[in-house]
Design brief:
Elements: H1 13-34, H2 40-47, H3 53-63, H4 69-79, H5 92-111, H6 114-124, H7 126-129
Helix pairs in contact: 1-5, 3-5, 4-5
Length: 130
């Protein structure tokens, strides 16, 4: 069951994106280990395919229609944040979408909704799960 939250009960969207980045990275690393990769070089090289702004923007597009109103609100606020760094290796749009995706992941982690978090992560990574 998804927990209804309000913006006032959450950390800033920048903090949520920070948490979401870490939680997403852990998810990707777990999947890669489950696939049987064991060497750190191979793990790091493969993980880079899923943790770039471009990849995360695509992941967001895969789950966009699944998001609930509070998740859409956090995404929108993170996407529109004026505190974003200038992207080095991606477009501004992909960087903003990736930040929004990370903020949604961070929000779900923050409120402890593991069931919803796993659903969003699994749907956004279907190509890895095959």
């Amino acid at each position: 069951m998804h927990k209804k939250i309000t913006g006032a009960s959450l950390p800033s969207v920048q903090a949520l994106a920070y948490l979401g980045d870490a939680r997403h990275s852990l998810y990707v690393r777990r999947l890669l280990v489950e696939r049987g990769l064991t060497k750190s070089g191979d793990l790091n090289r493969e993980a880079l395919k899923y943790i770039t702004a471009e990849a995360q923007a695509e992941m967001y597009r895969r789950v966009e229609d699944l998001l609930l109103d509070d998740e859409r609100d956090v995404y929108r606020r993170a996407y529109n944040s004026s505190h974003l760094n200038k992207p080095k290796r991606s477009t501004q749009a992909d960087y903003r979408a990736a930040t929004g995706f990370e903020a949604v992941i961070g929000m779900l982690y923050w409120i402890g909704d593991e069931e919803r978090l796993e659903l969003i992560l699994n749907e956004s990574h279907k190509e890895i799960l095959k």
